[in-house]
Amino acid sequence: MATTEVEIGLARGPNDGSRRYLPAAIAFDTRPLVLRAGGGRLRDRAGRDPSLLRDSQAGRSAGAGLRRLGPSAVPGHLMDEQNKRLYSTVLVEPGTGRRKHRRARQKAAAALYANDAKARRHAAQEPAEAERAEQRATTYLPPGGEPGQAALRSWQRLRLPTHQDTSATLGGAYPFLAEGGLGPASMFVGQDLYSGGSFTYDPWQLYAQGLITAPNVVLAGIVGSGKSALVKSLYTRSIAFGRRVYIAGDPKGEHTEVARAVGGRAIVLGHGLRTRLNPLDEGHRPSGESDADWAASVAARRRDLVGALTETVLNRPLSPLEHTAIDVALRASVAAADVPILPMVVDRILAPDPADDTDGRLVEDGRLVGHALRRLVAGDLAGLFDGPSTEKFDPSLPMISLDLSRVAENSTLLSVLMTCSSAWMEAALLDPAGGQRWVVYDEAWRLMSHPALLRRMDAQWRLARHYGIANVLVFHKISDLDNVGDSGSAMRALASSLLANAETRIVYRQEPDQLTATASALGLTGTERKLLPILGTGQGLWRIKDRSFVVQHQLHPAELALFDTTARMTGNV
Question: From CA 2, how far away is CA 155, in angstroms rounded?
Fold first, then answer.
């Protein structure tokens, strides 16, 4: 317990009643000793007034020699540890103290206050002094850069112009954010030029994840932009994942070498070749289909195919009478042979059985149809469909391509071949157990000019999800769709529906005069539109539903050698 000793005098003598100083020491606890602000009396530990205490021997107050002093008395100082402030006050002094002693005590108290204030000011200034010292010790680069060679020194300050834009646009331009991509569980395509990461794509995987609802792909790009290499790398890399590839018509023959390299087959059709394709073949029978259903399916497919071939040659729709003539001829040809061929149907149309033509009017009804089909077996289009098929469709092969490069100069024959080839593959395509397959329509601008082909393509695109097919439509520019039919016609509507049913749109470099039509058809933003004419070779804008990517397609050296379509121009034949 902390105590304080004070000297008390002026006590009465026991015998003579004289006054004198008697040195005495009284010890008391300083913590309960307080000075009342109002009364000014000194209290003991119990809070009692010493003037009320009586000495039984002396008969006087024990505190006769005590008096209250002001702040100039003996300085007793206490420190508040929490607030770090010094408090000085007078406890007790003798009753006969001198003035010089009181002044000395006042000076001592003032010195204590001054030293404490100085210490507090010094403590408060220390952090600021340390911060200023740190700032003085820090070295900053000059505005013009460091001096010396190769120090990126500039002769003037860097000034960037103010850019104003919407919050949605600026959110995409934030340098520390980048598109996360489509995930690693897909085929590698190349590099995302915005994020710098790898870009992968697989329509079946994206459909399984719910990112797209239509697996079809539309690809547009000018000549030499790299779109053919992209298509080839997409379907060849997917073969390792168990997918198969069907090229319904290759007008330039550039998929032939690829098909042979991956273990597939390329069927070359053209004048002077022994290859024959019978459009009336039954085709591949899907697993699990009954005999009755299979017979009805084959009959319907043959009827549609002969009608489509006739419409392609005549370049107009068929009348009901002409459809009847075709149906009667097909029924008679199937009854005469297990596998009918097209010349048999032509003969039955031009010379029907009298039992089927009792009034002789059927010959007249089918006369134009018979002569149109005769061009395929005995006219200028002969040599391709006038006999049994020399090639068998094998759906187990990883890739099948129909090479039509030898008839590319004849647009009518090319459209007929495309119609026959699509029907020839249709049985395998519509097999639910056929697995996942790519169907590529190269040089699509040729195909969409024929209504029969366009309708078959539209039907396959609408059923793509049901049969596990990913259709790829390749052409030079989006405005090719505007050249299909007249404005507001059914053909124009069908062509537009192909684009609507494709949630993956890939646009390679476009000419400046095509930007407005492309941006309108695909709903491109202003920034995306400005990118199209400056894209390099192999660079494309990928629009996958509502997401956009700018991708640099990357090829392995072996792929580059196999996919190269500029060998003749560069002399690397």
Answer: 74
The conformation of residue 6, written as its DSSP 8-state character, comes to E
User: How is residue 296 written in tokens?
Assistant: 């009805």
Residue with tokens 């459009």: 279
Helices 367-377/342-350 angle, 10° precision:
150
CA angle (49 as vertex; 47, 50 as ends), nearest 5 = 120
Q: What is the DSSP string of 115-166?
A: HHHHHHHHHHHHHHHHHHHHHHH-----TT--SSTTS---SS---PPP----
Q: What is the mean pLDDT of residues 221-239?
A: 90
Q: Rounded CA gap, 310 and 268, in Å?
A: 23
> Helices in 464-545 by DSSP H: which ranges?
464-467, 490-500, 515-522, 526-531
> CA-CA distance, 143 to 158, in Å (whole number)?
8
| Choice among 190-199, 312-321, 372-381, 420-429 with the minimum mean pLDDT | 420-429
Instruction: Note the Cα 502 to chain centre separation in Å.
Output: 18
Q: Is the pLDDT of residue 491 over 80?
A: no
Model confidence pLDDT, tens digit, residues 128-161:
999 999 988 888 777 666 666 656 555 566 677 7
Contact 401, 354 (CB under 8 A): no
Q: What residues are paired with 401 via a beta bridge? A: 247, 266
For 114-128, 210-224, 368-382, 505-519, which range has the lowest pLDDT when averaged over its residues? 368-382
Distance CA 227, CA 221 (A): 6
Place of tokens 């960037």: 160
Strand partners, 547: 544
Q: Is the pLDDT of residue 71 over 90?
A: no
CA 500 to each of CA 137, 406, 446: distance values in angstroms, whole numbers, following the listed order: 66, 33, 20
The residue to which tokens 């999800």 are assigned: 465
Q: How confident is the model at residue 291 (pLDDT cuts 50, 70, 90)?
A: confident
Chain center to CA of 60: 102
The DSSP letter of residue 61 is B
Tens of pLDDT, residue by residue over 119-130, are 888 888 999 999
Between 14 and 365, name the one with better pLDDT. Answer: 365
Torsions phi, psi of 529, nearest 5? -65, -40
Residue-by-residue DSSP string for 193-248: TTT-SEEEE-HHHHHHHTS-S-B-EEEE--TTSSHHHHHHHHHHHHHTTT-EEEEE
Res. 75 pLDDT band, cuts 50 70 90: very low
Which residue pairs from 65-71 have beta carbons closer than 8 angstroms and sit at least 24 positions apart in sequence? 65/8, 65/9, 65/10, 65/11, 65/94, 65/95, 66/8, 66/42, 66/92, 66/95, 67/95, 68/35, 68/40, 68/41, 68/42, 69/93, 71/106, 71/109
Task: Show the tokens assigned to 153.
Answer: 């020194």
Helix extents (H) in 251-341: 256-261, 291-314, 320-336
Residues 264 and 310: their CA atoms lie apart, in Å, by 32
